[in-house]
Design a protein that fits this description.
62% helix; Iron-containing redox enzyme family protein; mainly alpha; Haem_Oase-like_multi-hlx; 345 residues
């Protein structure tokens, strides 16, 4: 993946420094006054810092991953993100540990009254809008499961076994071609999109990046392991129905079985995963470490709130006749897609 185009003074400084060998960084430029979730400069800078723990960037020395001054910068960015999440997402009431699965189900039901992006994609979206949606999702889906995998060495017993069971499915049960990230690549190819890792980073807005940065925030800090477990549970508990709608929408637009396989796989797998995540992972974690019960519910609430915010952004832009991306996809690519297995919108 190439380093992205800067979106402000912090990312400009960061990109300029990362192409050099690791060295101490000076203090960053002043922050903008934007709310952290919508701050393009902050979200991209945090995404870049986190990506050093995943696949990294072409031409960037791996030594930057643990450079103390870069970690200090990351901590300042994280502090702003954590404050923004705390303002945006009220902490749910803390149930008794045995009631965590029921509380998660109630939380999901409460958030289910938001705008339905999946319903729009099933019935009304044209090919161009469906392609935009896939571009947004590629930022996370091409490294699907990786942020939640950070929790495995931080858990014990029943919760650990539950997470390993879920993640084994996400990684295709040891078969590379069945890894969910690889299935998503097939969807991208079916839609005529570049399926290389991070290819669309410059196109997606801050709200899309915030979904990924929040996952990494929870995943890379042991103190956030409860929030990470709740986050994963919310993901799994809100997956089956939307993925069925995505598959139906893509079929309506002429998408073939290979392009739809990613969504079809999640309809089946996540119906099982949601039970494992709610009962064995989160219920087991709360039973063994009751002090994490509140964090589990908060992590789930953060996942749901960000997903709702993302859906509102996308649907609002589309209702205005605008692209939901920072820069629209080229029409030429969309035209090519219509003849390359995705059908006509």
């Amino acid at each position: 993946m190439q380093l992205p185009e800067p979106r402000g003074p912090v990312t400009a400084r960061l990109v300029e420094e990362l192409v050099r060998p690791p060295h101490p960084l000076d203090a960053p430029p002043p922050w903008s006054g934007e709310p952290a979730i919508d701050d393009e400069d902050l979200q991209l800078a945090l995404f870049v810092c986190y990506e050093l723990h995943y696949q990294g960037f072409d031409g960037v020395d791996d030594g930057w991953e643990w450079e103390p001054s870069l970690l200090a910068l990351r901590a300042r960015l994280e502090e702003r993100l954590e404050r923004a999440l705390a303002r945006m997402v009220p902490r749910p009431p803390v149930p008794a540990p045995r009631d965590v699965p029921r509380a998660l189900a109630a939380l999901v039901e409460e958030y289910d009254d938001g705008p339905s992006l999946s319903a729009f994609l099933r019935s009304r979206a044209d090919l161009g809008r469906f392609r935009e949606f896939v571009v947004h999702r590629s930022i996370y889906q091409l490294k699907e499961a990786d942020p939640h995998t950070w929790a495995i060495p931080r858990l014990l017993g029943r919760p650990k076994a539950a997470l390993v069971e879920i993640q084994a499915d996400e990684y295709g049960g040891g078969r590379p071609g069945r890894m969910h990230a690889e299935l998503f690549r097939a969807t991208m190819r079916g839609l005529g999109l570049d399926d290389s890792y991070g290819a669309h980073l410059d196109r997606v807005p801050a709200v899309t990046l915030a979904i990924s940065t929040t996952m990494s925030l929870f995943g890379l800090h042991r103190r956030r392991r409860g929030a990470l477990a709740g986050h994963l549970a919310a993901f799994e508990m809100t997956s089956s129905r939307p993925n069925l709608r995505y598959s139906q929408g893509l079929r309506r637009l002429g998408g073939d079985a290979a392009a739809r396989r990613y969504y079809d796989e999640h309809v089946q797998a996540d119906a099982v995963h949601e039970q494992i995540a709610a009962h064995d992972l989160c219920g087991g974690l709360a039973a063994g470490q009751p002090h994490l019960t509140g964090d589990i519910l908060y992590g789930a609430a953060c996942a749901l709130a960000l997903d709702r915010l993302f859906a509102r952004h996308v649907l609002d832009r589309w209702r205005q006749g605008l692209s939901s991306l920072r820069s629209p996809l080229p029409d030429a690519v969309a035209a090519a897609a219509s003849g390359a297995g995705a059908g006509r919108g």
